[in-house]
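Dear colleagues,

As part of the handover before I leave the project, I'm documenting each prediction I ran so the next person doesn't have to rerun anything. This entry is a single chain, and its sequence is reproduced below.
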Amino acid sequence: MKRGTIAAAFLLVGTLGCQRDRDRTMESLIERVIASKGRESKVTIDRQHDSITVDLGGATKPQGWPAAVPFYPRASRAKIEAAAGNVQRVVLTTDDSVAAIGGFYSQELARLGWQVGREEHGTWTARRGPERLELRVFGRDSTTRAEIEYRSSGSS
């Protein structure tokens, strides 16, 4: 009888181990799908409590966004809306204020060697050699939207 119990325990552990591997694979797959939509996430499948938890984090820097332009770290969503030739445009949203976003970009762009112009009606401009950047920030209710247009060298 003991041998049968031990064999059943090994079978159960083996099955659960295989199930956990499948769950980890599924968690990873779901996290990659969410990342492809521009969000960080942590997915946890908990069979013991019959639950699946998805913790969404901030936005991830869109693939193809230029390294010359900092990415706002507290963005909740970000999407490249236009990319043609030497011009790229990203739109991001956050719960932070217009002033917080403007302050971040003014400081970070200056740190990276950009010459930042004065803010006028929620719009900042910056230049670094032949590169140009325009940041437009709009606040509405508790959400702030920022549109960043970047023109690399050789664009008009």
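The two ends are 83 Å apart (CA to CA). The chain has a mean pLDDT of 82.

All the best with the project,
I.
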